[in-house]
Amino acid sequence: MTVTAAISVFLFLLTLSTATIATAQSVSFQTDNPRKRSIDGIVDKHALEYMNHEGTIGLSIGLMTDDKFYHYNYGESEKAGGHLPTASTLYCYGSVGKTFVGILVAQAVLDHKIDLDADIRRYLPDGSTYTNLEFRGQTIKIVHLSNHTSGIPNSITPFPDNWGSSSADEKYLFKKSYDKRRFLDDLKTVTIHDAPGNKYTYSGTGVRLLAIILEEVYGRPYPALFHDYFTSKLRMRDTNVVQDIHDWNRFAVGDQDRNELRRTRSGFDDFTSAPGGVSTINDMMKYLKVNLAEKNPAFKLSHQPTWQGDHRQLGLVWRLETDALGEQRLFHTGRGLRNQCAILFYPRKHLALVVFTNDVIPDSFLDELCDRILHDILSTMRAR
Questions:
Q1: Most C-beta atoms within 10 A of its C-beta, which of 95, 198, 230, 235?
Q2: How far apart are CA 140 and CA 143, in angstroms?
Q3: What is the largest CA-CA distance in the chain?
């Protein structure tokens, strides 16, 4: 055999080997994607790219376009468990929960319970005692809490010095004991360093404070307000702020200990962070459908711009932006309990996407997944 022939054979075998590896990668993840329609192919291409990153376990995707709903699942709900997630698998949505707070604030405005331009201390118990919540006489308004320009830090909780090495049970006992009263006491230690409304500084504390204000003006706990408005009214039956011990049976635990979650994450609202919770693809698509329609006045009000600067634009919690194709969309992301979530929607295009994962790989990979799926779908729409 000549040298040229040998090289040709080697390159052929290398090509064959590479193709085999690629095929093995593409079929090594369980999926319910039927791979029949063009939209199936778009999702499958980018979902497999995501799943091939080291550290992924499971992935659930919900899409709504032209009033049609599609859902896709990949991988496992529990590492090495062999069970494919479904559209009814529970995931933690993390900071996406802030958007629910924003909508409830909008409803409170429509109910004449809250004025967006009012001093927040007007709605706090013993509000006059919070002399620290202003900057040189400039007050923090409700709208400032809603668009992260209040100047209140992201977290004010005085976690123990050994927090990083604390056990799950020790963290549970601390969080369960950290109630509204302790939160409000710690709020009095805050120092505001800039004029409210001047600078964007992401603040989970600010959104938690909004939830407390909602409690004050309606006279009901935030989880109850949430339940009435979303769990019940929108029939999002699998979506809640406080988890029941049985919720963990359907939770996408990834590589976590399910029994530990049952023991340390059930039955309390965590005041060390903004309100979070769990949901499913099915429920989040109901949520996005109402957001897309913009027929509900509170939802529509929450979408209106309230602040712009530093290459950002915000509504009532919602983030607004123009994507790479020049299309306007609203979105939010979140992570918690070793899950990640992203929701995005285009009111003018009647297009919405929600993605859940049960991993903690860099969130930039999730951002890329969402952008690539939506880019290809929007490009297909333009080509029609």
A1: 230
A2: 8
A3: 92
Whole-angstrom Cα distance, residue 21 to residue 90? Answer: 32
Tokens of 200: 């964007």
- The pair of three-digit structure tokens given for residue 23, joined into one six-digit string: 């095929």
Q: Which residues contact 175 (CB under 8 A, 6 or more apart)?
A: 268, 270, 271, 272
State the pLDDT at residue 66: 85
The per-type count for the chain, helices as H runs and strands as E runs, is: 12, 12
Q: Any idea what the Cα angle at residue 172 is, between residues 237 and 340, rounded to 5°?
A: 50
Burial of 152 (0-12, 13-18, 19+ CB in 10 A): buried
Nearest to 303, CA basis, from 318, 321, 313: 318
Region class of 18: left (phi > 0), else alpha (psi between -120 and 50), else beta: alpha
- How many whole angstroms separate alpha carbon 116 and alpha carbon 162? 39
Residue with tokens 């409210």: 196
Indicate if the pLDDT at residue 24 is higher than 70: no
Q: Look at the domain 34-383 and name its fold.
A: Beta-lactamase (3.40.710)
Burial of 193 (0-12, 13-18, 19+ CB in 10 A): exposed
Q: Are 230 and 287 in contact (CB under 8 A)?
A: yes
* CB contact at 8 A, 27 and 52: no
Rounded CA separation 335/295 (Å): 29
Overall average pLDDT of the 27-36 stretch: 88
What is the reported pTM?
0.91
Beta carbons within 8 Å of 284's beta carbon, 6+ residues apart: 62, 93, 239, 343, 354, 356
Query: How do residues 294-306 score in pLDDT, each as one tens digit?
Result: 999 999 999 999 9
Sheet holding 319-322, edge to edge: 68-75, 58-65, 351-357, 339-346, 328-336, 319-322, 312-314, 307-309
Banded pLDDT at 14 (limits 50, 70, 90): very low
Is the model's pLDDT at 12 over the cut of 50? no
Closest residue by Cα to residue 262 from 164, 163, 168: 168
